[in-house]
Amino acid sequence: MSIDLTLTGDNKLRNKLDKLERRLGKTIVNRAMRASAKRLRPLIAAAVPVDRGVLKKEIGRAKIRVLKRRRVVGVGIQMPTREALGIPDSAKGYYPFAVEYGYTHRSGTHVPANSYVRKTVDTQTPREQAQIGRDIGSEIERRARKT
Q1: Which residues contact 13 (CB under 8 A, 6 or more apart)?
Q2: pLDDT in tens, 89-109
Q3: How far is residue 38's CA from residue 31's CA, in Å, rounded to a whole number?
Q4: How far apart (Å, rounded) are the C-alpha atoms in residues 44 and 37?
Q5: CB within 8 Å of 103: residues ≥ 6 apart
Q6: Per-residue CA distances from 51 to 55, 57, 144 (Å)
Q7: At what angle do helices 11-47 and 116-146 cross, to 10 degrees?
Q8: Which end of the chain lies in a sparser environment, N or C, as judged by fewer CB atoms within 10 Å?
Q9: Taking the CB of residue 36, how many other CB atoms lie within 10 A of it?
Q10: For 14-61, what is each residue's pLDDT tens digit?
Q11: What is the distance between the alpha carbons of residues 101 and 95, in angstroms, rounded to a whole number?
């Protein structure tokens, strides 16, 4: 079933309604994306290779941020700070990225990437896309019943 509403007349009123619709849509999508990131966070933490376990613990309680870009909706899991991971200020590297992307050791040998974030996101993408669609659909239906 489809409903098409056309508003003719006052331009100010039409502009306000357009803004309300955009804002409401953005709110619904952001809420669904945040829920997806919350579902992915423990899966990413579980995939972290464990040395001391600090990175795993910190990712498990990392903040989820909405990415503010024009015409793009996104949500990210904020990686823990150097301080939270116990990396001294004098250290050159940031090991979560070194593990994710690989690096060249001081001895000249290459240490390959262990892409714990990318692997988790790639394997969960189809399931999350379907769930995000269901979340958005149910929220639109809920708000439609409310009015």
Answers
A1: 7
A2: 888 878 888 888 998 988 999
A3: 11
A4: 10
A5: 93, 110, 111
A6: 9, 12, 50
A7: 140
A8: N
A9: 20
A10: 565 566 577 777 788 888 889 999 999 999 999 988 877 888 888 888
A11: 10
